[in-house]
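P.,

For your records, the input lines for the assembly:
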Amino acid sequence: MTKTETMLKEVKLFINGEYVESSSNRLFEVKNPATQEVIAKVHEASFQDVDRACNAARKAFEEGPWRTMSVSERCEKIRRMAEIIIERKEELARLEAMDVGKPYQTAVEREIPRAAENLKFFADFMEKQGGEVYPMDDQFLNYTRYEPVGVAALITPWNLPFMLTTWKLGPCLATGNTAVIKPAEVTPLTVSLLGEIAKEAGIPDGVVNVVHGFGTQSAGEFMTTHPEVDLISFTGETSTGKAIMKNGADSLKKVSFELGGKAANIIFEDANLDKAIPVSIQAAFMNSGQVCLAGSRILVQRTILDEFLTRFKEAAMNLVVGDPQDPSTNMGPVVSEAHYNKVTSYIDIAEFENSKLIYGAKRPNLPEHLKTGYYLLPTIYLQENYQARICQEEIFGPIVTIIPFDTEEEALKIANSTDYGLNAIIWTQNLQRAHNISHDVRAGTIWVNCWFVRDLRAPFGGYKKSGVGREGGHHSLEFFTEAKNICIALQ
Ligand code: NAD
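Structure tokens returned:
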């Protein structure tokens, strides 16, 4: 029996270097969203289990050798984790496709390699870091050390489970912290394997722990209120971020939040539509629209509205919606029944708000074995009122709204009209306009004539209710370290 088959049957907690059963004896089921078939039974961590995991992480932090070993030795082990992920990439991608419902091809070609790159990048980056030196008139010398903070709670969502967890784990480990990880309850399969991957890479017991469970009054809350946790790196919904901030407040935990989005994808009349349309289709429907960076509000200058609508609709109709394991599939189901109900409720809302349906809003025709899956066709609405709920709220599914505009000022006003500010996309060939709009849109990442291009050195995070803090490059290292100033008298 392969490791994967074992994990499919029963997903255990990984605490202090070994897989263990939950002390509560409670197990919850995980379903394949393409078929509703149960693919795993997962041990739900009790308070005692989370307590053990946090204490194991504390002990591993305090007693070493993780924190005290040389940076190069530590980073070598993290790079080994990355290598193991690449060696196991087909298995990880198959699990991710089964768990999330995303196309296997995207997982194997992009997400799993990017997960490995997250670890390798931060290992390489950390090895090259120095600190500042401030001499004072040859009398005193100040220098700065960046030291690990302690035990980190890493809490991740279900849309890109493995990739987003390694995005946190890379800088967390490279800086010498220890971790308690909690993946989303609907997609725990790949993240649970990080335990054995870390062990195989030679990472000491207790440095990486993985617990499973839910949020409120479950593993999530137990971690974020635990006295041994020093910092919380969380990616998920804005409302969850608020709850975590309140829970972490009593013990003043350091927090970094990557939250929701409702990005404007602004198509000016001088845009190169041959590029803008295929990329906008990706931005709208990749991962069934379950991407925080999705370009879910497409602002189109009225002079090109008809042409854009025709071409965008045609491209959406050409997407292959089907079995995530089939290499020809472009779009799978959404992740769960609860999420399907949330996403499809926006169809009623859109109708109530007099949005014009351009395409979709119904289930695709699918073969018999996928008939129970949580599928929705790529769905496009046209809406003149940018304050309508479908233009303001994060749907996080394959539903996009096209909003016409006339002037640059109007586009800017619409782009900045939501509570979110994670990212925006601008399509224009006018250099001045590209710069000016990029400066004036209140969002953490602006892509001009492209989307989803990531340099891991660059800051990543949201304005407004899309986040707190930044991750990426030295921003991650600053979050995961305490900066210490040492002042030496020279005379
Ligand atoms: P979610 O907030 O429901 O859950 C995320 C994680 O938090 C899960 O592991 C969940 O169990 C846990 N959790 C829930 N309540 C908790 C609590 N009270 N205390 C501690 N932990 C708790 O989010 P989701 O539905 O899994 O993911 C979708 C959301 O994530 C969307 O809003 C999306 O925009 C956002 N997201 C943001 C980014 C980004 O980089 N900004 C990336 C991906 C997803």
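Two observations worth noting. Residues 1-7 have pLDDT under 50 and may be disordered. The CA atoms of residues 274 and 311 lie 10 Å apart.

Regards
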